[in-house]
Write a structure and sequence with these properties.
686 residues, alpha+beta, Helix Hairpins, D-amino Acid Aminotransferase, Chain A, domain 1, OB fold (Dihydrolipoamide Acetyltransferase, E2P), five-stranded mixed beta sheet, five-stranded antiparallel beta sheet, 37% helix, disordered C terminus
Amino acid sequence: MSQRDDDTAREAARLRRELEEANYHYYVEDAPVIPDAEFDRMLRRLQEIEAEHPDLVTVDSPTRRVGAPPSEGFPEVRHAIAMLSLDNAFNHDEVRAFARRVADRLERDPETIDFCCEPKLDGLAVSLVYEQGVLVQGATRGDGRTGEGITANLRTLKSIPLRLRGEHPPELLEVRGEVYMSHSGFERLNEQARETGGKVFANPRNAAAGSVRQLDPQIAASRPLEFCAYQVARIDEARWESLHSAQMHGLRQLGFRTSPALEVVTGAEGLIDFCQRLGEKRETLDYDIDGAVMKVDDYRWQRELGYVSRAPRWAMAFKFPAQEQTTTINDVRFQVGRTGRLTPVAELEPVQVAGVTVANASLHNMDEIARLDARIGDTVIVRRAGDVIPQVVQVIVEKRPQQTRAIEMPAECPVCGSRVDRAEGEVDAICSGGLFCPAQRKESLKHFASRRALDIDGLGDKLIDQLVELEWVKTPADLFRLEVARLSELPRVAEKSATNLVNAIDRSRQTTLTRFIFALGIPEVGEATAGALAAHFGTLERLMAADETALTAVSDIGPIVASHIHAFFAEQHNRDIIDDLRRMGVTWEEVEIIDRPQPLAGQTWVLTGTLEAMTRDEAKARLTALGAKVSGSVSKKTHAVVAGPGAGSKLERAHELELTVYDETEFLTWLEAIEQGEGDEEVRDE
């Protein structure tokens, strides 16, 4: 081997080692040691080396997590040691009975027996087999004796080590654990599915189970799956610990994630206390659990206790109340949210779900109703997971009675009577009574007074809440009728504070057309769009008179945004409030319409992290002046991302979508060239 080849082999080995170390700290320790961008750079370099030198590819390379060809079917795998199920306890008396049976069989004082407890994850049980420290087999539980070989899919999970950590791993190791999906990952997956017309899953468990049993490993790789180890089934005798809790600690050292909530307790009351505390935390967790698992901690005692036909005597699951139940939809009403969005809410036959009586459940929107094929009178499955409004996840069509009624979107807002507008291609239906609708009042006023709108200093959220609840302010125009004497009557508002607020309101009468348009709170109209409208039309009168065709002539305004703007100004309630604001002295200078170059027209940019040479507001202003739209979220439609120090999930999302990412120095150089008319306005191809 030449010196160059030898150096390349060493570089590949170093990259594999450092990438796996980074994976361990990120997915097991939850403590990243390198930035995501650096991880991606290293992975790309390793891919380049392996593409040029196939002989350097190893079975445990991080590049092997993705890319296996689709399988025609899963092989049958016979478990060396059966994957048994657990007996269940549903109340504290049954937990005490379990602890008493254990103590009686061991002929020991029940208060001297330690149990290792952890949450019972609601996912799919799998087995992993390692030989000489390398993952060689992954299988489902199946019927407990025989499962399906899904090794290629499990290799894609970054929380599963492909090679065990440490210099001297066990020669043989079989680890069992749960594949699951977090709530946040599940929501992202379903959101992407709705955007692309893909399959929407009913719950995280179904999503996880369905993902690991896909014949194409690329599908599993694209899903936010996690793995948590809960048992050592086989290991070299010399490596066997005497306690289950110690064995779990050993698994972490080998590179596995184990439950951070794992705890050793003593006796029946210790078990009950753990189950109670876990139950109280259940709704705050970012993953589903359906109970707690309780195991005798000492392996010698486990062996002495043995098994019954299908379950160990030394372990039991305490089951929480089910988070899904069956009930019927009696009716559907539509709630109006703070932004005017109408949400259909099913009125249910009351049912106990996870220990709480549920009488209402969200149906989200009309598209979700169509997907579910839900009708009034249907029998449905209701789910309550996390601190959220319960939701209908499935209609049991087989139980549909003959007399059911279709669910229809109302033509008028159920709160204010304004027209309900749903633009073609939009999921949400919006009440067009923006400034007038009582359901939107508080948020409309907070937006109107915010720093980037009319910038009324001293008019905070709590004060607006008070003014609305006292019915002193019903529309933005009422703010300009407030007087010092009346404001001084409010709790914790002294005369000086009231005077300062009235003066701030008075100063806000003189504004700009861009700020005023933005302050109106028209759906989908942010600062950049408000500025584009002001620059294009020059006066509010021309804007209000524009039809949808004229609105789509404005840079970066498509049919959906145009329909929202047109619907807003077509609503007489909104026009009346605008007239009232002008009578109260709110004014601005007309905008001179200048035909200036817009080289970034049609492009969407995202700013994230801390910029050092300029503020993000300044960067945003310079981009919008060139015709770009600056968004707060990264999507497939994003053209480029500017990332400063401290960039987080937005930068991670940009890398996932393979978008162009600028650091601040690159961005400034490129921006100055564009502003001087010297640069190429096309985003550079990386």
